[in-house]
C-alpha cells in the first residue's frame, strides 16, 4: 500500500511540469525576447525525449529495476526545471527540454508497466488521475506567483524544489521496490525475458492503440500548451488569470480520469475505451462553439 502511495506521488510529480510551459509562456517569451511560436519547438523536444526514453524503458527497467529508473528520471526532471528557472536565453530552454522529456518518458513508461502488471485496471485510471492532479497544480502554482508579481522563474524554481523533495522520498523508498521485485521473482518459475519493441508492435491491436494515443495526446497537449496564450491574445485575460484557467482545463481532465477509475470496477475495459473515444469526439465538437 505504501508503495502504491509513492507511485501516485511520482505521477503527481510527472504532471507538474507538463502544464507549466503553456501557462507561463505568455510571460516567458516576452522576457526571453522570443517569438510566441517557439514554445512549439520546446514542446516537440520534450515530447521527442519522452518517446525515446519510453522505447528504452523496457531495457532500463529490466536491468536497473523500476525504483532506480524512477528515481533517476525524477532527478532529471528536477534539474531540468531548475534549469528553466535560471536560463537567460531562449535556446537554453531547448537544451533543458532534453532531460525533461527523457525523465518524463522513463517515469511514465516504467510506472505504467509496473501498475499494469501488479494492480487492477482501476489503479491505472487512478494513476493517470494523479497525473491530472499534478498537471492542475502546476498552472495554479504558476498563476499564484504571477499574481504576486514574483515572476515565472520563481514558479519554475519552486516546482523544481518539490521534485527534489520527491527524489529524496524515492531514495528512501528504494527498498520497497526491491521487496516487490523479490516477491515477483518468487512467484515465477523462471525469469521473464523483456519483450522487444519490434515484438510488441506485432501484437494485434498495438498499432491502433498507438495511433489512438497519439491523437489523444495531440489534443490534450496542444490545448494545454496554447490555452493561456489564446486567452490573453483573444480575450484579454491577465497572465495570472490565463494560467488559472489553464489549470481548470487540467482539473476537468482530472475529474474525468477519477470517474473512469471508479467506472473501471463496473464497466468492461473495451467499453470504457469506446465510450472515452465517443466522449472525446463530443468534446472536440463543443470547442467549435463560442
Describe this structure in words.
The chain is mostly helical. 85% of the residues lie in helices and 0% in strands. The chain contains twelve helices and no strands. The longest helix is centred in the C-terminal third of the chain and has 30 residues. It is globular and about 50 Å long.
- Spans of at least 5 consecutive residues with low confidence: 185-189
Query: Whole-Å distance between the termini?
Result: 46 Å
**What share of the residues lie within helices?**
over 70%
What kind of oligomer do you see? single chain
Largest sheet: none
Number of strands: 0
> What is the approximate shape?
globular
Output the helix-strand order: HHHHHHHHHHHH
Tally of helical segments: 12
Overall average pLDDT: 82
Q: Give Rg in angstroms.
A: 19 Å
Compact summary:
The chain is mainly α and 290 residues long. The chain contains 12 helices and no strands.
Question: Which structural traits does this protein have?
Answer:
mainly alpha; 290 residues; single chain; 85% helix
Describe the protein's topology.
Elements: H1 2-18, H2 20-31, H3 38-64, H4 66-86, H5 90-118, H6 121-147, H7 152-172, H8 174-187, H9 197-201, H10 206-235, H11 239-263, H12 269-286
Amino acid at each position: 500500500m505504501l508503495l502504491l502511495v509513492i507511485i501516485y506521488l511520482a505521477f503527481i510529480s510527472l504532471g507538474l511540469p507538463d502544464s507549466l510551459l503553456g501557462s507561463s509562456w505568455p510571460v516567458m517569451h516576452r522576457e526571453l525576447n522570443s517569438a510566441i511560436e517557439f514554445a512549439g519547438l520546446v514542446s516537440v523536444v520534450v515530447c521527442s525525449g519522452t518517446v525515446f526514453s519510453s522505447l528504452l524503458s523496457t531495457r532500463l527497467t529490466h536491468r536497473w529495476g523500476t525504483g532506480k529508473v524512477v528515481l533517476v528520471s525524477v532527478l532529471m526532471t528536477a534539474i531540468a526545471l531548475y534549469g528553466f528557472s535560471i536560463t537567460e536565453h531562449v535556446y537554453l530552454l531547448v537544451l533543458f527540454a532534453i532531460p525533461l522529456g527523457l525523465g518524463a518518458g522513463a517515469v511514465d513508461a516504467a510506472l505504467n508497466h509496473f501498475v499494469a502488471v501488479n494492480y487492477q485496471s482501476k489503479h491505472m485510471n487512478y494513476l493517470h488521475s494523479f497525473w491530472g492532479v499534478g498537471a492542475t497544480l502546476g498552472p495554479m502554482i504558476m498563476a499564484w506567483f504571477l499574481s504576486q508579481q514574483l515572476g515565472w522563474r520563481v514558479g519554475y524554481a519552486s516546482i523544481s524544489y518539490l521534485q527534489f523533495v520527491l527524489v529524496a522520498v524515492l531514495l528512501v523508498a528504494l527498498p520497497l521496490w526491491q521487496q516487490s521485485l523479490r516477491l515477483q521473482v518468487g512467484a515465477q518459475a523462471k525469469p521473464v525475458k523483456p519483450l522487444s519493441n519490434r515484438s510488441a508492435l506485432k501484437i494485434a491491436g498495438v498499432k491502433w492503440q498507438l495511433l489512438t494515443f497519439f491523437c489523444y495526446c495531440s489534443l490534450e497537449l496542444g490545448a494545454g500548451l496554447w490555452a493561456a496564450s489564446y486567452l490573453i491574445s483573444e480575450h484579454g485575460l491577465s497572465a495570472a488569470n490565463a494560467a488559472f484557467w489553464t489549470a481548470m482545463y487540467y482539473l476537468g481532465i482530472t475529474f474525468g480520469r477519477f470517474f473512469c477509475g471508479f467506472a473501471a470496477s463496473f464497466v468492461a475495459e473495451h467499453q470504457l475505451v469506446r465510450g472515452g473515444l465517443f466522449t472525446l469526439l463530443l468534446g472536440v465538437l463543443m470547442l467549435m462553439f463560442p
